[in-house]
């Protein structure tokens, strides 16, 4: 069965559900867990010409690191309460790429993540990290919603 689960999270309420499902599954089957959260690159966050209202890259990095640390600490503490072996990773990359690469590097055999359920034009315009992961992942993906 599965021995090393990758739980991908962005800290959202929906992602918290996937975190819990992943941790409970890991406990039931005796698997270890890696939890990953990704921060998109600074250049991906800026659009068009710079303006007086643009966020300085240094501030962006500090805030992103703080946010990722809060997410990963919360999940790590939950894993400890459930007595699940858990490591955490913060990656600076586009989420789908970060998830797939982390699963590859850490030799995970199942990816667990939430779908935000975007449909129609929202899905086309914003894309779907889940769709990208499913399309490219060399391992199984459990989608929670």
Structure overview:
This protein has a single domain, classed as HUPs (Rossmann fold), CATH 3.40.50. It has helices at residues 13-29, 42-45, 57-81, 95-105, 120-126, 129-136, and strands spanning 4-8, 32-39, 86-92, 110-114, 140-144. Helix 4 packs parallel to helix 6. The chain is 50% helix and 21% strand.
- Look at the structure and give the mean pLDDT: 87
SSE ordering: EHEHHEHEHHE
Distance between termini?
A: 23 Å
Radius of gyration: 16 Å
Provide the CATH topology.
Rossmann fold
Put simply, the count of helices is 6
Poorly predicted ranges: 121-126
Topology summary:
Blueprint (H helix, E strand, L loop, with lengths): L3 E5 L4 H17 L2 E8 L2 H4 L11 H25 L4 E7 L2 H11 L4 E5 L5 H7 L2 H8 L3 E5 L1
Parallel strand pairs: 1-2, 1-4, 2-3, 4-5
Helix pairs in contact: 4-6
Keywords:
single chain; 145 residues; alpha/beta; Rossmann fold; five-stranded parallel β-sheet; 50% helix; 21% strand
């Amino acid at each position: 069965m599965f021995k090393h689960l990758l739980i991908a999270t962005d800290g959202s309420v929906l992602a918290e559900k996937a975190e819990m499902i992943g941790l409970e599954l890991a406990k039931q089957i005796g698997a270890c867990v890696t939890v990953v959260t990704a921060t998109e690159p600074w250049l991906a966050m800026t659009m068009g010409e710079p303006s007086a209202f643009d966020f300085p890259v240094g501030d962006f990095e500090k805030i992103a690191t703080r946010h990722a640390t809060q997410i990963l600490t919360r999940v790590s503490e939950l894993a400890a309460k459930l007595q699940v072996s858990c490591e955490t990773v913060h990656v600076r990359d586009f989420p789908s790429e970060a998830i797939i690469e982390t699963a590859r590097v850490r030799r995970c055999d199942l990816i667990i993540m939430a779908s935000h359920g975007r449909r129609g034009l929202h899905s086309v315009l914003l894309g779907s990290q889940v769709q990208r992961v499913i399309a490219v992942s060399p391992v199984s993906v459990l989608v929670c919603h």
